[in-house]
TrEMBL record:
It is found in: Cell membrane. This is Phosphate regulon sensor protein PhoR. It catalyses: ATP + protein L-histidine = ADP + protein N-phospho-L-histidine. Keywords: ATP-binding, Cell membrane, Kinase, Membrane, Nucleotide-binding, Phosphate transport, Phosphoprotein, Transferase, Transmembrane, Transmembrane helix, Transport, Two-component regulatory system. GO terms for biological process: cellular response to phosphate starvation; phosphate ion transport; regulation of DNA-templated transcription. Member of the two-component regulatory system PhoR/PhoB involved in the phosphate regulon genes expression. PhoR may function as a membrane-associated protein kinase that phosphorylates PhoB in response to environmental signals. Residues 41-257 form the Histidine kinase domain.
Amino acid sequence: KNSMEVEFLVHKFGQNERLIVVRDISRLSKLEQMRKDFVANVSHELRTPLTVLRGYLETLEDADNIPPVWNKALSHMQSQAGRMTSLINDLITLSRLETDEKEHGQEVVSLVTLADMVAEDARQISTESKHLISVNGPKEAFIYGREQELRSAISNLVFNAINYTPSEGIILIDIAQGPDGTTVSVSDNGDGIDPKHIPRLTERFYRVDPGRSVNSGGTGLGLAIVKHVLLRHNAELTIKSTPGRGSEFICYFPPARSAAKPLKHSA
Ligand code: ADP
């Protein structure tokens, strides 16, 4: 009941001297847990009334004889309610990533199938903007992981690439697997990012241009979700970008994550 959580900091002096600082972080981690629970509860509590509101808005939009000014107001209300729904869904996703047991639900995931599915979804929403979205890499590449989480990470990267790349831009999902590990990289030839922003991009709600992000339907949580998914897979995210030329988001999975083709698929 009175267990204590401690943090060790070791300072090295010269050859043989060490200063070891032991810090009691029980209170800090209790507060951190309270914060996580609070965000998870608030997000869940907000979802139900929002669903009800959206339902009523739809009923009103379908009604006959609505004055034109109402129509405009209703469609604004719908789109704002839609934004709030995306925000709440992303907050719930993040909360789950922070609290769910890391070792649960591990399976062999086909990265090529996953990338193809994400690319197909992305093509559906970018028919007007005419982005070219393609998947490059080996015929097959498998890793141990949680498929839904990995799909949401790759989706977030690809949808960002679409949002921050002008029409007819090129978006590539590159997969590579070898003895040194596996990489999935998503690159675009879009706006690019000033290097000074790169270290902060995975923070919640950090945006280079908030107006731009909101207009494109962003919640400001996409890269935070990507970071957490990768952390849970012992993977790392590297961001390379040149303003005006484009960006590359590289997810690196260590060799221990590589998996063989599952038997059920080999028939
Ligand atoms: P958002 O919902 O705002 O896109 P993200 O967490 O997904 O939130 O991304 C954070 C910020 O990083 C974005 O607001 C944008 O400024 C920048 N960003 C992300 N992906 C790209 C990209 N492919 N090209 C240029 N900027 C990007």
